[in-house]
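batch job 7 of whatever, protein = Glucosylceramidase
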Amino acid sequence: MKRHLRILGPLLLLFLSGQPKGYAEESCGLRHFGGDSYVCVCNSTFCDELPIITPVRAGIYLAFQSTLNGHRFAVSEGSFTSWEGEKAGKESADEVDVTYTVGPAAGQQLILGFGGALTDAAAINILSLSQANQRSLLSSYFSPSGLEYNMMRIPMAGCDFSTHIYSYDEVEGDFELQHFNLTSEDLNMKIPLIHRIQRMTKTPLKILASPWSAPGWMKTNKAMSGGGKLIGQAGDRYHKSWAQYFVKFVQHYQVHNISIWGLTAQNEPIDGFIPLFPFQSMGFSPTSQRDFISTDLGPALSNAGLRKVKLIIMDDQRFLLPKWADTVLADNATSRYVDGIGVHWYFNYITPASVLSKTRQRHPDKFLLSTEACEGSMPWQTKVVLGDWSRAEAYATDIMENLLNGVGGWIDWNLALDTQGGPNWASNFVDSPIIVNAKADEFYKQPMFYALGHFSKFISAGSYMVQGESVLTPHVMTILTLGLASHPAKSLLICTAERPDKGLALVVLNKSSTTLHLRIVDGRRVRGSFVAQIAPRSISSFIWW
């Protein structure tokens, strides 16, 4: 496929000087949708690639910035001022609005990675494109010249982002699951796409599977949608059979040379208690999930030789924390089977991110993982908004608040949707970082896509979060006063991580309408600092070794 411009890596970047070069203007295929709305367009002959991050010499930093006005990964480089020069006051403190000092050492918060969900809808949209565009879309997410995703979530059977309701065993009373089989959605769409993705990634793909509902014949309402619970109670034949359903799923994917890294015990278990819930759901309370895991699911996975598969509880809204985790994990018989706690981002506005830190502190041996997020999900929201920068900021805010409060990774919802925000059999349309226009054989990279890249390409799997301290001048504090809510202000968020290659990655989100001059101080390694200009309404990533 023809490439009009290919950024090969930081060796090229070191020759750049002066004002940041507009990556989008050069190589992104920028398309304007009015106002401050821009997408990057990929078609069968062109798709932009992101820089491949490799170490550069000590004392040099690389900077990448995306902005409201259309810059995408605009790149610059610079050097640290020596520690002695800084202490001597050779740089004017009046030019600095914020000083951020990198902490002395990495903590214990391990980064599992970043990713998105390969739903039926995502697969349908990807496969609707030409072969060249399919390759570009998958590469945009998973290759070293893309977002470098290392995680993927897949539904166990159907969810609302399917074209119809289905399970893997529709034969009523088949408690031995003799009729369990994967469907065409798995065999003809998701599994072939996963194989293609696995050939692109530089690290093993962590695949997380989640069930939306047991087959209808196992449930109190006799249907996969509309709420309902498993019939009976933990330890009975319904619960034993449902636990074996998980085992069968993992084993059937293994036959196709795909290893399942993790399982959530149930997608959004509280949905099953909502009368006439509009799509697939199944109810569990903290106590019933606890009992199901200790009595049925945990032993079933262990007895099948699948103990290494990560088991994640809750997989629901953070307003359920810390009570949900406390209830499930207080039982040692359950806790020994559980590896992590899954959280979704919906309704975060009613619960502070501090509940994540509190949960992490109470259960330090369990990881926290953000397992689903999307824009356009609320009834009052427009579903797909092409080029909306505010949605990129919402993603970046949530990722940042998660990382600053003990969460070890972030998985987006649908990898790709159509221009309506589907397909979705329940008409529950939403937005996505990539929108596919199959009729034109092109797809659009939304600002959300690049927001994700500012984290996934820099705070890579195996990194550890590093604490830092921000000091704001009174002038900037006044500007940001209305947004003061988190670290250090709602309008300005900063986080740092130490990568497996020993690089330090720092991400800055500036949601204010003010250009900020940020001094970044690294006193433990480089022993110096540099001052960076942070554009208004921007996301910036810095990296140095």
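notes: Residues 1-26, 482-489 have pLDDT under 50 and may be disordered.
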